[in-house]
Amino acid sequence: MITSLAASKAYAATGATPLSLGKSVGEPKKMDFGDMLKSAMTDTVQASRQAEHKIAQQAAGKAELIDVVTAISSAEASLETVISIRDQVISAYQEIMRMSI
């Protein structure tokens, strides 16, 4: 099971930042949750494709096994991060739905 700390470390490894510079110098533009989630999904798909590519290269004898294992581990970590985020969003939604008006 992935922890919040592991998820935040995996997200930090993507290089994304919550605040990115806007068009004007010094004008910060906040990254919203949808953009952050889209970035995490894109990174996960890219890591999975890279792992598949490394597996194909290794099967053809053109890649080292350690590179394949590293690519698979990276893809797995990205997927676990996205799943953890999904689970937290669903949990928050269910909690909101239980609130009385």
Automatic annotation (TrEMBL):
HAMAP family: FliE
Main location, first listed in the record: other
Pfam families attached to this UniProt entry: FliE
Organism whose genome encodes this protein: Caulobacter flavus
Gene: fliE
Alphabetized GO MF terms: cytoskeletal motor activity; structural molecule activity
Matching PANTHER family: FLAGELLAR HOOK-BASAL BODY COMPLEX PROTEIN FLIE (PTHR34653:SF1), PTHR34653
GO biological process, alphabetically ordered: bacterial-type flagellum-dependent cell motility
Keyword line: Bacterial flagellum, Cell projection, Cilium, Flagellum
Family statement drawn from the similarity comment of this UniProt entry: Belongs to the FliE family.
Protein name per its UniProtKB record: Flagellar hook-basal body complex protein FliE
Gene Ontology CC: one annotated term: bacterial-type flagellum basal body
Compartments in which it is found: Bacterial flagellum basal body
